[in-house]
Design a protein that fits this description.
The complex is a heterodimer of chains A (260) and B (260). Chain A is an alpha+beta fold and 260 residues long. Helices cover 29% and strands 28% of the residues of chain A. In chain A, β4 and β5 form a beta hairpin. In chain A, α4 packs antiparallel against α6. Chain A is globular. Chain B has one domain: 4-Layer Sandwich (Glutamine Phosphoribosylpyrophosphate, subunit 1, domain 1), CATH 3.60.20. Helix content of chain B is 35%, strand content 24%. Chain B contains 8 helices and 10 strands. Chain B has a 5-stranded antiparallel sheet with strand order 8-1-2-9-10. Chain B has a 5-stranded antiparallel sheet with strand order 3-4-5-6-7. In chain B, α4 packs across α6 and α6 packs across α7. The longest helix of chain B has 22 residues. Chain B starts with 19 loop residues before the first helix and ends with a helix. The chains are: A alpha+beta (260), B alpha+beta (260). Chains A and B meet through α3 of A and α2 and α3 of B. Chain A: It is found in: Cytoplasm; Nucleus. Chain A: InterPro entries: Ntn_hydrolases_N, Proteasome_beta4, Proteasome_bsu_CS, Proteasome_sua/b, Proteasome_suB-type. Chain A: One of its GO terms (biological process) is proteolysis involved in protein catabolic process. Chain A: It holds the Pfam family Proteasome.
Chain lengths: 260, 260
C-alpha cells in the first residue's frame, strides 16, 4: 500500500487505473434543458359552482414509448390545492419537491396561514419565469386548481415561459385542442361555470378524458381525478376510463396503411 | 476602579449570566419617547409622542407605514429603526410579488426578531438600539407585536415602550377588558389617554407632538381592510381635543392619580 497520506482513501491506480480528472471539471458546456425527455400529456380542468374538477392520465411517455404507466401527475398542496403537471416528468418531480418544502415552511408558522391556490399559482409562475430567464426552463405547463382569497373556485395555468392565464375551463397539451372545445360547450363563461353542479363538471371532465384517450396517441386509460372544494380535496389516483366505444374507429380515414 | 469587564461585546456573558451589551440596548429603548399600541377585534392602533431636538427643529418621526396592511412605531435609535423598517418593507413587497399575498404579521416580526438575535451572538456586531411596536392586520385579523433589541418578539393586546412608559402600561392594564370590543375611535382615545399618563408634569399632548396610526379589518378576510393610515399634525386634532384636560369626566381624572 502506498504510505503517502495524499493517496489514502483513493482507489489504487495499479488496480483501477489513474483517476480521470475530467469528470471533476466545473467548466465545459452548461447542461440546460433543451427539450423534455420523459413527458406527461394533457391535464384538463373545469370549474363548477363550488369547486374545480381536474384530471390527468397516469402515463409518462419516453418519446412515443409508453414508458411509465403509474405516474401520478396531480399533486396536492397543503390539502387545499391541486397542481396538475403536463410536460417533463423530472421537472415535475423537482417542482413537487419544491412545493413540498414550501408547504412545510408555511406550516411552521403556527397561526393557520396557508397559501391558497391563487398564491400558489403566482409563486409557480415566478419560478417558471425565473428559470426561463436563466435559459434553463422547467419544461412544464401546469394547471393550479383550488380556491382564491374569497374562497371562490380558482383555476389558472402557468407554463415554462412564465405565461399565465385563467378561464372557467383549461386544458394543457393535446387537451387544449381536443378537450377544451368540449369543456367550453359545458361552461362557455364564468357565469355558466358558476351554475354547474359537481356531477355535471365531473361528467364533462371524464368525457374529455375519454375523447383524449381515443385520439391522443400519448395517453392512457388509467387516470387521476380530483375534486377541490372548500371542504377539501377528493383525489382518486387509480381511475379507469369507463364505457369506451371504439365503434367510430373504422370510420376513420387518412391514417395508417389504408389509402381511403 | 471597578470597571465592568463583561460589557465590551455582545458575545460575552458576565458571571451572573447577563449580556451587558444587550441590556444597554434595552436602555436605549427606554431613552426614546413613549409609544403605545392597542388592538381590538377589528382594529390595531399606534399612538406616539414625538420629540423635537430643539425648538427650531422638526419633530422626529415615530410611526412608519410598512405596507398597506401594517405599520410600526419606534422607541430608541431612529436610524436603527430605519434599517429594520426598510428590511420589513422589502419583505412585505417580496411576499406580494412572489405569492400575491400580504405577508402574515407573525412571520414578518419573527424575521426581524431573528435578525436582531444574530446581532447578539456575533463578535463585532451590536444589538439594535430600538424597540418596535408593529401593528397590522392579516388573514387572522388585527395584531400587535412588540419587538425588543434582544430579538425577543411577542404578541400583545396592548403595549407601551419608551421613556416613562410604565405609566402608560398601568393605564392599559386598568382598561384591558375594554379594548377587545372597542371601535376605531375609542381605541385611538384609549391610546392617547395612555400616552397622556406618561407625560412629564409640564408637558401636554398637542397636534405637533402626536402621531396616530390606524389599521383595521372591514369584514371577513383580507380583501376588505382599512389600510394602515398615519395621522400627523392637524389630522390628529380630532382626537387630541377629545382627550384634552378638562374635557373628560371621571375616566380622565382617575388616571391622573397614577402620575403622582
Amino acid at each position: 500500500m502506498n504510505h503517502l497520506p495524499q493517496a489514502w482513501g483513493r482507489p489504487r491506480d495499479d488496480v483501477y487505473g489513474a483517476y480521470d480528472g475530467s469528470y471533476l471539471q466545473t467548466h465545459g458546456p452548461n447542461q440546460h434543458t433543451q427539450q423534455p425527455i420523459v413527458t406527461g400529456t394533457s391535464v384538463v380542468a373545469l370549474k363548477f359552482s363550488d369547486g374545480v374538477v381536474i384530471a390527468a392520465d397516469n402515463l409518462a411517455s419516453y418519446g412515443s414509448l409508453a414508458r411509465f404507466t403509474d405516474v401520478k401527475r396531480l399533486r396536492k398542496f397543503a390539502d387545499s390545492s391541486i397542481v396538475g403537471f403536463g410536460g417533463d416528468v423530472s421537472d415535475m418531480q423537482y417542482l413537487d419537491r419544491l412545493l413540498n418544502s414550501l408547504d412545510i415552511e408555511e406550516a411552521y408558522s403556527s397561526s393557520g396561514h396557508t397559501l391558497n391556490a391563487k398564491n400558489l399559482h403566482t409563486y409557480l409562475s415566478k419560478v417558471f419565469y425565473k428559470r426561463r430567464s436563466d435559459f434553463n426552463p422547467l419544461w412544464n405547463q401546469v394547471l393550479v386548481a383550488g380556491l382564491d382569497d374569497d374562497k371562490k373556485p380558482f383555476l389558472a395555468s402557468a407554463d415554462l415561459l412564465g405565461t399565465t392565464f385563467s378561464a372557467p375551463s383549461l386544458a394543457t397539451g393535446f387537451g387544449a385542442h381536443l378537450a377544451q372545445p368540449l369543456l367550453r360547450k359545458v361552461a362557455p363563461d364564468e357565469i355558466a361555470a358558476s351554475k354547474l353542479s359537481k356531477e355535471q363538471a365531473l361528467a364533462a371532465v371524464k368525457e374529455s378524458m375519454k375523447v383524449l384517450f381515443y385520439r391522443d396517441a400519448r395517453s392512457l386509460d388509467k387516470y387521476s381525478i380530483a375534486i377541490v372544494t372548500a371542504e377539501g380535496i377528493d383525489l382518486k389516483e387509480d381511475e379507469k376510463l369507463e364505457n369506451q366505444s371504439w365503434a367510430f374507429a373504422d370510420q376513420i380515414r387518412g391514417y395508417g396503411t389504408q389509402v381511403n | 476602579m471597578f470597571r465592568n469587564n463583561y460589557d465590551n461585546d455582545s458575545v460575552t456573558f458576565s458571571p451572573q449570566g447577563r449580556i451587558f451589551q444587550v441590556e444597554y440596548a434595552s436602555e436605549a429603548v427606554k431613552q426614546g419617547s413613549v409609544v403605545v399600541g392597542i388592538v381590538s377585534k377589528t382594529h390595531a392602533v399606534l399612538v406616539a409622542l414625538k420629540r423635537n431636538a430643539e425648538e427650531l427643529s422638526s419633530y422626529q418621526k415615530k410611526i412608519i407605514a410598512i405596507d398597506e396592511h401594517l405599520g410600526l412605531s419606534l422607541a430608541g435609535l431612529a436610524s436603527d429603526a430605519r434599517v429594520l423598517s426598510n428590511f420589513m418593507k422589502q419583505q412585505s413587497l417580496s411576499s406580494r410579488l412572489t405569492y400575491g399575498r400580504a405577508i402574515p404579521l407573525e412571520r414578518l416580526v419573527s424575521s426581524i426578531g431573528d435578525r436582531a438575535q444574530t446581532n447578539t451572538q456575533h463578535y463585532g456586531k451590536r444589538p439594535y438600539g430600538v424597540g418596535l411596536l408593529v401593528a397590522g392586520v392579516d388573514e387572522t385579523g388585527p395584531h400587535l407585536f412588540e419587538f425588543q433589541p434582544s430579538g425577543m418578539t411577542q404578541e400583545m393586546v396592548a403595549c407601551a415602550i419608551g421613556a416613562r412608559s410604565q405609566m402608560a402600561r398601568t393605564y392599559l392594564e386598568r382598561n384591558l377588558e375594554a379594548f377587545a370590543d372597542c371601535g376605531r375611535e375609542e381605541l385611538v382615545k384609549h391610546g392617547l389617554r395612555a400616552l397622556k399618563e406618561s407625560l412629564a408634569q409640564d408637558k401636554e399632548l398637542t397636534v405637533e407632538n402626536c402621531s396616530v396610526g390606524v389599521v383595521g379589518v372591514k369584514g371577513e378576510g383580507m380583501k376588505r381592510i382599512e389600510a394602515f393610515k398615519l395621522y400627523d399634525g392637524a389630522e390628529v386634532r380630532q382626537w387630541v381635543d377629545l382627550v384634552a384636560d378638562g374635557t373628560e369626566g371621571a375616566e380622565g381624572t382617575e388616571g391622573m392619580e397614577v402620575d403622582l
